[in-house]
Amino acid sequence: MYDRGIIIPGLIIFVLLVTFPIWYNHGVAGDVPKPELPKDSKKCVDSVNVMRSKHMQLLNEWRDEVLRTGDRAYFELEGKKYQKSLQNACITCHTSKKKFCDTCHEYASVTPYCWDCHLAPVESE
Amino acid sequence: MDKKRREFLKIAGISTLAGLGAPAVVDRLITGSYPLAARAAREVTPGEGAGDQASTAGHGSDTVPSGTRYGMVIDVRKFNENPAMAEACIKACHSVHNVPDLAEKNNEIKWIWLTGYGNAFPDHSHYHKDENLEKNQVLVLCNHCDSPPCVRACPTKATFKNKDGIVAMDYHRCIGCRFCMAACPYGARSFNWQDPRNGLDMNKINREFPTRMRGVVEKCNFCVDRLPRGLQPACVEATGASKAMVFGDLNDPNSEIRQVLKENFTIQRKPALGTQPSVFFIV
Amino acid sequence: MFEKALKGNNYYWIWLAFLGTFMAIGALCYIRQYNYGLGLTGMSRSVSWGLYISQFTFLVGVAAGGVMLVLPYYIHNYKAFGRITILGEFLAIAALTMCLMFIIADLGQPLRALNVLLHPTPNSMLFWDMIVLNGYLFLNILCGWVILTAERKQVKPPKWIYIFVYISIPFAISIHTVTAMLYCGLPGRHFWLSAIIAPRFLASAFAAGPALILLVGLILKRVANFDVGKEAKDKIVTIILYAAIINAFFLMLEFFVGYYSNIPGHKHTLEYLFFGLEHDGHVYNNLVPYLWGFVVLCASGIALLAIPYTRRNDLWLGIGSAAIFFGLWLDKGIGFVLGGFVPTPLEEVVEYYPTLNEIMITIAVWCTGFFILTVLYKIAISVEHEIES
């Protein structure tokens, strides 16, 4: 093999860099997040699994329906009427962004920019 | 490189290109099976409806009515009688929609504001104006044109005409190119040159309405969020029972706004540009 | 072929390092702008496009100008341009890269730029501009590279490339036409609302592009031992002269329409740009020196290129083409876009002054363009030298 002196150390450095997250965290994936669920209401717009994996699509759908198609119909849940709205519906039950949204988002290392415009609930501390 | 390998690479390259383009094409073809695309198809296509209407409407006449078309009449005389009312309208609008009050004049954002008669209506005569117009100012806002140049210019459909004739903004989609600002002949649009929250008191904010983020264009939305809740636009509400502002459906012959238009001589801003504004003024 | 760009004398490296320094400073300035927002620029609600978009507009012209070398060679079989069409194509690549960088620098939400593709909107001229600009960039990279590779191997370029060369010619026209349409289709902006904008853009482009190539050609003769050739040089001068004169003619037509019709909207911006516009007792004239600079530079540039004595002298020829390039930059790269916002749709006058941060980003984009141009020209000329030896 030509240039063995360069290629092999280069490969080693490359592998070390790529695996950085693993050895930096000592091979531990971190604790599974436990988002705090609302105490007063039991039912969300969909099942836990769907909400966990698809809430972003749902929010996008609501956004397009409300804003673009003008379909602002309310929906009913446990006898209460809600708008299709992150700011005016979701956070009426999920009253803490820190204890709900952020727990998973931080774990998954995603930073959605919803809250750049939409007002997060006032944290009660 | 032997011949076969070269041929393979050629075919691979071409099919990659085709593969990249195909989804978009297929998407368009089978709109029914793809919810997002279907939704896109239901949207009012910018320019399309308005253009057709304009061409069939003939010379000088307005558009053929179809569906709802929200409009507004502003009675400048009533504002002249009660100058504090205009400020109340501005305040109502800007606080309901969390419009920031930024220190830097260059970064200013406004949805509804006062300007001189000559500024609002540069094409009308200003020679020896009557005293009222000389002294007082006129409230101006987005005209929610029937044939909006901003919608024509927008490269992402972030601004569009909705089914009620309101020229709306989708702040999620705006890329901040500001083509719409160059296109608007009324200077109705503002850009978020910095984070708008720099100019908002976050404790006194309207928690039912979002703010905007930096890098997007914003403007009056004719209170598109309040109308379905049975509310009048915030500025109209602020004028109380004075009838200084009348809001309603221009296509409904029995609406109050149509009565006002029938009984008064009204003017629009820059009608010669063919934008067909939905805001009318009694001066 | 890239290895050719890695070998050069000290001047080559010093020049690249010089450009690189400004690129680095500009990158830092852009990070500042990215984090704070476009509030770090001098733009405002009234003047909503500034240096970035005006540079973009000018550089689209420079990119389109390269076609003035490609067209005579490939359509009219004008052999004298054989050696330098590559300079036109590589100039287009550098200029278009600058254009795209200026667009990105100007976006409020640069990360969403691809929304233009995700939600294609054929009624927006910006959508078409994106298509033709990227198309033209692709065509120039393809044609330039394939033809240079063939030249290096001293074989004829493959036949299929000619299809792309011929397509690239109308594309060159289209990039500047569509860029003009960004402006000339907007109601209520009287200065831009003129059918002559696209022809005027093309005229100034066909002067500015070749003027830059001629200027660079004269420099290359001294520093890189690369001669454009006398016949080619004379022909480029002719092209520049005609294009610059036609541009001046079109501008005079604008003056005639504005001042003879006496319609205020058609006159105001010209008044603001060339004489200063009075409004509420204040005269606004911050662009007047630039526009008279354009007049003086273009007039003297045309004279230097037209008079046989100065045309035959390389120094005067260089000064003349630099004057035309710089003059047209003042016209289109400063006056046209910024002037169009005065007066505002509400009949007010707001003057625009770029900030230091904005100017540094602008300089950095220009330096990036010249960096790319230097590297590409280095490759092209090294190939030429290799063939000769």
Percent of residues in beta strands of chain B: 5-15%
Oligomer: heterotrimer
Query: Number of domains in the coordinates of chain B?
Result: 2
* Global morphology of chain C: globular
Cα distance, first to last residue of chain C?
17 Å
Give me the side-by-side strand order of the main sheet of chain C: 1-2
Elements of chain B, N to C (H/E)? HHHEHHEHHEHEEHEEHEHE
Largest chain-chain contact?
Answer: B-C, 55 and 45 residues
Just name the CATH architecture of chain C: Up-down Bundle
Average pLDDT reading of chain C:
94
Low-pLDDT stretches of chain C? none
Tell me the series of helices and strands of chain C, N- to C-terminal: HHHHHHHHHHEEHHHH
Low-confidence stretches of chain B: 29-58
Basic shape of chain B = elongated
CATH homologous superfamily designation of chain C: Formate dehydrogenase/DMSO reductase domain
Query: Roughly how many Å apart are the termini of chain B?
Result: 81 Å
Helix content of chain B: 25-40%
Compute the CA-based radius of gyration of chain B.
23 Å
Key descriptive features of the protein:
heterotrimer, A: about 120 residues, mainly alpha, two-stranded antiparallel sheet, 6 helices, 2 strands, about 50% helix, B: about 280 residues, alpha+beta, Alpha-Beta Plaits, three-stranded mixed beta sheet, about 35% helix, about 10% strand
Structure description:
The complex is a heterotrimer of chains A (125), B (283) and C (389). By secondary structure, chain A is mainly α. Chain A has a domain at 35-117. Helix content of chain A is 52%, strand content 5%. Chain A is built from 6 helices and 2 strands, in the order αααββααα. Chain A has a two-stranded antiparallel ribbon. The mean pLDDT of chain A is 89. With 283 residues, chain B is an alpha+beta fold. Chain B folds into 2 domains: 3-42, no CATH class; 48-282, Alpha-Beta Plaits (2-Layer Sandwich). In chain B, 34% of the residues lie in helices and 12% in strands. Chain B is elongated and about 85 Å long. Helices cover 72% and strands 2% of the residues of chain C. The relative contact order of chain C is 0.16. With 389 residues, chain C is mainly alpha-helical. Chain C is globular. A two-stranded antiparallel sheet of chain C has the order 1-2. In chain C, strand 1 and strand 2 form a beta hairpin. Chain C has helices spanning 10-36, 51-65, 67-74, 85-106, 115-118, 125-152, 160-184, 197-223, 230-261, 264-274, 288-306, 308-311, 314-340, 356-388; strands at residues 277-279, 282-284. Chains B and C meet through helix 6, helix 8, helix 9 and strand 6 of B and helix 5 and helix 6 of C.
